């Protein structure tokens, strides 16, 4: 757990409050903490409910084990978001440059495998370039997390601490935070930034006094990107499908994966990853080892028997992650929804509480670029209020 022994919660109950409390340690929360630090705003603490940072950014190593996102490495495979599009998301691309990260163009050379519903064998289809220019990062998207965490002052991040309740008291916000041991501690802050999905914030945090009814409804009705999805990765020694003139891409009406892509590391291990098309409500009744077996069988149908025996494989079902998904998300189609209002315009929460997670971005809601956009905008507004 990443904690700061110099910041005592007890001192916050009666002493000077934090300037800013950030709830959520994904891309938006980490970037906001770095930007505030760069603007000279000290006394900022970030609370992350998980025992790791990154939020919906998660990678696995070549052994199939989940990797520590704060440690940079090359042989990593994304189990959350994988791509960005520099031409369409210049602000995000500028952050990649500023952090000195290496881009990897998505491999798309070769034919695409297509299988329709039923028992017909899959067929090869010549790929049509879409010109979108999908790009990955060396070391996976978690390299963003490692780079941002490395720029933070020691001790401003607290993992394994769940913000359960926010109370408006005088000119402050009291945060009731549950630690990994079950102890509840109270912190005070001048302002709070919510760097988590709107729906999750509305469902998992008690607001006292309550949020305005319309604001609460809008947050609750905003689907969380990735929340209903599951992603499977199979790791191999070599990208053998390329020898057959295949791109590693596939589309399937049979499943269990609906869409598959090459996730190989240049000069390192090869991999295929797929988005599981089985609805979240159905996946609940399927043991993980059974679903992984069906995924391997599908890869064998599409790319030959060598695909049936990866050196490692891993499945991440985001619908089962309580710090990502709510009950409503299991019924969602997982679309990128329009951004809801990020703050109350009047009343007790005005100027004290604002959303900066990806779903609050007007231009890129739910995308990685949205987390960057919302964090930059939110920090700018906070700094303006602080004067």
Would you give an account of this structure?
The protein is α/β, with parallel strands linked by helices. It folds into two domains: 9-55 and 146-222 and 336-386, FAD/NAD(P)-binding domain (3-Layer(bba) Sandwich); 64-140 and 228-323, Polyamine Oxidase, Chain A, domain 2 (Alpha-Beta Complex). It contains nine helices and 19 strands. The strands form four sheets. Strands 1, 2, 9, 10, 11, 12, 13 and 19 form an eight-stranded mixed sheet that branches. Strands 7-6-15-16-17-14-18 form a seven-stranded mixed sheet, covered by helices on one side. A hairpin with a 5-residue loop joins β11 (172-178) and β12. α2 (27-38) runs parallel beside α4 (142-149) and α2 (27-38) runs parallel beside α9 (368-386). It is elongated and about 65 Å long. The two termini are 34 Å apart. Mean pLDDT is 93; it is low at 1-14.
